[in-house]
Write a structure and sequence with these properties.
With 70 residues, the protein is mostly helical. It is built from three helices and no strands.
Length: 70
């Protein structure tokens, strides 16, 4: 939490995906890391909802890619 401070909207979005999509704790930590990177690239000190949404999209795309490959 020290390095991944986020807005309430971003936190709510992550909680929703975590509870409704069956994301594991490890998966949520990875998503937060990606969201932190997206926020850094956008020059934002906080992870905002749009950063979290982009990270979640990358996660979904990655999952679909690997399902096809296996």
């Amino acid at each position: 939490k020290r390095y991944a401070k986020m807005t309430k909207d971003a936190s709510s979005l992550l909680e929703y995906v975590f509870s409704h999509q069956g994301v594991t704790m490890r998966g949520s930590h990875r998503t937060i890391k990606v969201a932190r990177t997206v926020a850094d690239l956008a020059g934002s000190a906080l992870i905002r909802e749009e950063h979290m949404a982009e990270a979640i999209k990358y996660k979904a795309y990655s999952r679909k890619f690997w399902e096809v490959m296996l």
